[in-house]
Amino acid sequence: MSISRRTARTVRILGVASASAALALGVAGNALACNIRDFSAVASCDNGKGSITVTDTDASGKEATVTVFLESNGADAKQIGSEKVKGTRDGATVTFSENWGPKAQYRIHVDVPGLVNEDVSPTLTTSAEGCASESPSPSGTPSPSDTPKPSEKPSDSATPSAEESSSTAPAAAGDNSPSAAAGESNLAETGASSNTPMIAGIAGALVVVGGGAVFFGMRRRGASKAN
Predict the structure, then answer these.
(1) pLDDT digit string (tens) for the chain, length 227 residues
(2) Which domain holds residue 81?
(3) CA distance 169 to 72
(4) For the chain, which terminus, N or C, has the lower number of CB atoms within 10 Å?
């Protein structure tokens, strides 16, 4: 049984249309499938606090595990963290806290079971300035709160009153020297004078003269009684 030319043409047209539809569906499926090009990373710094943000624009919404590693000489120095994220057409983000240094390199690895198991390319390299916490002010310059303020008014307990000063002032201990008034006054007031030796000498002479007079008087009287 032979197939007419018209039937053959119809079959050919249907075959081409089916192949075109299959190719379109395949392209659309590949466009919606998750791949490494859906992921990107950026390092940022806000008020001295650094972070690394990974964005997932996978429209299929597949769950991906994102792991960040700090690189050193082409090898993993340490793992910064690992988080899960479900992509969206507008982009879903996951953030890792990291005070990154200047020109630091980070490897971003993405794992989507059965679809993706590779690193974001190229490797994330930070800026030359780095991101560090704000440095404290020099120790030699005190802050306004540390600067002592002068006292506005002396304490009442620290300043004695005039009456307390005059009434409680102690006399100087161990000072036996005469006062100025005593030095200027007459020594008769104290029972001593610079004329005392002369008076004592005169008195002694008078005593001697008196004694001699008495002695001679008694001797003359005895002589007269004997005669």
Answers:
(1) 556 666 666 666 666 555 554 454 444 444 457 899 999 999 999 988 999 999 999 999 999 999 999 999 989 999 999 999 999 999 999 999 999 999 999 999 999 999 999 999 999 999 999 886 544 444 445 555 555 555 555 555 445 554 454 444 454 445 555 544 444 444 444 444 556 667 777 878 888 878 877 777 777 777 666 65
(2) 36-125
(3) 80
(4) N
Q: Buried (b) or exposed (e) across 40-73, using 16+ Cβ within 10 A?
A: ebebebeeeebbbebbbebebebebbbbbbbbee
The answer to pTM > 0.70 is no
**Does residue 3 fall inside a structural domain?**
no
CB neighbour list of residue 50: distance below 8 Å, 6 or more residues apart? 43, 44, 97, 98, 99, 100, 131, 132
Distance, in Å, from the CA atom of 209 to the CA atom of 153, rounded to the nearest integer, reads: 82
Both tokens of 208, joined, read 């001697």
Number of domains in the chain: 1
| Residue 9 in domain | no
Among left, alpha and beta (phi > 0; psi -120 to 50; other), residue 12 is: alpha
CATH code: domain of residue 109: 2.60.40.2420
Q: Is residue 60 part of a domain?
A: yes
